Structure formats: structure tokens, C-alpha cells
Amino acid sequence: DQQVKQNSPSLSVQEGRISILNCDYTNSMFDYFLWYKKYPAEGPTFLISISSIKDKNEDGRFTVFLNKSAKHLSLHIVPSQPGDSAVYFCAATGTASKLTFGTGTRLQVTL
Amino acid sequence: DSGVTQTPKHLITATGQRVTLRCSPRSGDLSVYWYQQSLDQGLQFLIQYYNGEERAKGNILERFSAQQFPDLHSELNLSSLELGDSALYFCASSVVVGQNTGELFFGEGSRLTVL
Q1: Which chain A residues are Cβ-neighbours of B109 within 8 angstroms?
Q2: Which residue out of B47, B89, B103 would a mutagenesis test of the A interface target, given it has the greatest number of A Cβ atoms within 10 Å?
Q3: Residue B97 has pLDDT above 60, yes or no
Q4: Chain A residues lying within 8 Å of B38, measured CB to CB
Q5: Are the CB atoms for A21 and A8 separated by under 8 Å?
Q6: Smallest Cβ distance to A98: which of B4, B56, B107?
Q7: ω before A9 within 30° of 0 (cis)?
Q8: What is the phi-psi region of residue A3: left when phi exceeds 0, alpha when psi lies from -120 to 50, beta otherwise?
Q9: Cβ contacts of residue B42 below 8 Å, gap of 6+?
Q10: Which residues of B touch A42 (CB under 8 A)?
Q11: pLDDT range class, residue B95, cuts 50, 70, 90
Q12: A3, CA 20 to 30 Å: which among A41, A99, B36, B70?
């Protein structure tokens, strides 16, 4: 049972444009959501997070939006840069304290 | 550099064998997590230890076991290996103080190939 879903395996965006990565979840007990970025041959690194009491969190070029009623979150990257090319994982956690990850979306930012 | 060290980085072995993966968490982190990433899959949570005690368990097979030692390093033991166990195994650590906010620091992973 995939509780965190990233339905787009890949996304290609031109440099300077907006990248929007989407994530859906099914478990209503999740109350904290995170995005991780992963480059080849490296471990995932934390990017940005959002608590369920908020609907938006910004950190520089990265903004995460949470729509609790739709059980949907998205990561916006503006403007996209070639160095943003990586696999992005959405993750969620609740009181069980373990993170549940999605399958990832590979973002390619083209020149 | 996340501060989490995993060894070995690569391991090739045969079916039926047993391997041990090692993880040293970031200095000061009490929690260690193990995740498995198979081809085209997300990271599947296996198990969490906190200060030497098992804290949470995920989809960990009975053939797999883990422990966290007094110096806080952790080992993941995989036995009776099957072809399907070929995967990237990540260790992560965090400081768990009260409510776990979920931010983990990952090592570079150990790539296991079972032939």
C-alpha cells in the first residue's frame, strides 16, 4: 500500500522556468511533510518541510504547498537551475515517527 | 557531507550468503534508521533504533536483523540472501528530542548486489 505517491517519475523544465513537483498521500494521520533531494551516488538530503498546521512554507527558491483536504502537496522551484537536476522524494510522517517516502520524481533542468 | 558514514560502499555476493552493513551516525545523533531502495522504488523503511533500543519497525524481512551498539553505531545483517535483496541500503540518523520532526541525515548508501 503506497501511502505516499509521486505519480510523475520524471519532469523536464527549462532553466529559469518554474518546476512543480507533486505528491499525494492517503494516510490522514500524517502531520509533517518533507522533501528530499538526491543526486546520483549520494544519499538524500533534506530540502524543505511543512507542518500540517500550515499550508505554505518558503525557503529561497523553494516553496512547499500543502492542501490537507486534497491530501496533496507540491514543491515549487523558481527559478529552476541546472544544479536542481536531481531526484526529489516526498516524505511524510506522523506520531509513529517513521518517514514514509514516495518513489521520487527525476527533475531535469535543461539549458 | 552529512556526517553519516556507511561501509562498505559496494558489496557483491552470492545467493544464500550473509552480509553486514555498518553505519556510524552523526556525532550526537541518537537515532539510526535503515532504508532499502530497490530499482525504481522509493525508500522503504526497514527499522529504527534509538539509543540502543529498537524504536520502530517497517517492512523488514525476518532474514534481516539490525542492532545499535553502545557507541551508537549500527549494523544491518542480511542473511540467506536472494537476488531480490539487491538494492541500495541507506542509513540515516537524527536527533530525536520529543516529537520527531522527521528530518533525517542520510549516508551515501551501501550498494548490495546479489548474484
Answers
A1: 43
A2: B103
A3: no
A4: none
A5: yes
A6: B56
A7: no
A8: alpha
A9: A4, A6, A89, A101, A102, A103, A104
A10: 108
A11: confident
A12: A41
Q: Give A23-52 pLDDT, tens digit per residue.
A: 999 999 899 999 999 998 899 999 999 999
Residues of chain A with pLDDT under 50: none
Band (B75; pLDDT cuts 50, 70, 90): very high
**Chain B CB within 8 Å of residue A60 CB:** no
Lookup: cell for B88: 541500495
Q: Is A21 on the interface with B (CB under 8 A)?
A: no
Residues 6+ apart with CB under 8 A from A59: A48
Q: Residue window 79-108, chain B: list those with CB within 8 Å of chain A.
A: 90, 92, 96, 100-108
Please compute Rg for chain A using Cα positions: 13
| Other residues' Cβ atoms within 10 Å of the Cβ of residue B32 | 31
